[in-house]
Amino acid sequence: MHATPTSRTGFGTVSQSRCAVSAARIVRHGRPTMSASSTAWRPDPLLTVDDVAAWLGKPKNTLYAWHSRGKGPRAIRVGNTLRYRRSEVERWLDSQTDPER
Fold it and tell me: Which residues have a Cβ under 8 Å from the Cβ of 18 and sit 6 or more positions away?
């Protein structure tokens, strides 16, 4: 049973809303809504230059040089510092991995 939008909240009754969520996940703004039993969405943690340098075993200056040349993992400028998404560093590492032989 699907709930039909009837009010500003988007659902007619509470029971209809629960049925709709359990029967088929409702998507708003490109993300599935979270039900009470699922965990809350959390953003990918941002790593500092020190974190990534230690992870990769490279000096911090190498990361800064890569960033200025458009190489290395994609970084985010937050104020006057660079931050890296863990997923971006992992994606970059995957792209640097040798193909299977």
Answer: none
